[in-house]
Design brief:
Layout (H helix, E strand, L loop, with lengths): L1 H5 L27 H18 L4 E4 L1 H8 L5 H4 L4 E3 L2 E6 L2 H6 L4 H18 L1 H4 L5
Parallel strand pairs: 1-3
Antiparallel strand pairs: 2-3
């Protein structure tokens, strides 16, 4: 994930925040149950409200479906921007999926370029990272 973010001049230590749909890992690393995500939803919403992100990159089907309240497949959610509380949201594959299937590297890179391009348009601070 760090390499993916750095490719578009983002870093967890300076200009990126990682937010999960649940506050603790489900047993055996399974997907969180709907009731587990619902129990943590208030925390997620509060963090987004406090942080006021310019954009959101949703990584993985679970996060995307929860945040966007959608049952579409990850493939159908990619390549387009959505809104969450007026914040642009782009969906891509989870880094662990890329580790399991290297064929996903190209689609993720395409998504990241799309995300970075949009972020440059709407954030003078981010555009400044490119000397503009």
């Amino acid at each position: 994930l760090d390499k993916m973010l750095s490719a578009i001049k983002l870093s967890r230590s300076t200009n990126t925040y990682i937010l999960n749909t649940v506050k603790c890992r489900p047993p055996e690393n399974r997907n969180p149950l709907p009731e587990e995500m619902s129990a943590c939803q208030g925390f997620m919403e509060a963090q987004i409200k406090v942080l006021k992100p310019t954009m959101i990159l949703c990584v993985g089907k679970v996060a995307a479906q929860k945040l966007l309240e959608s049952d579409l497949t990850l493939g159908n959610l990619r390549n387009q921007f959505f809104k969450y509380q007026d914040i642009p949201v782009l969906v891509t594959y989870h880094p662990s999926a890329v580790l399991r299937n290297e064929a996903l590297k190209a689609p993720v890179w395409s998504d990241l370029k799309m995300f970075g391009s949009e972020l440059k348009k709407i954030s003078a601070e981010y555009a400044g990272l490119f000397g503009e």
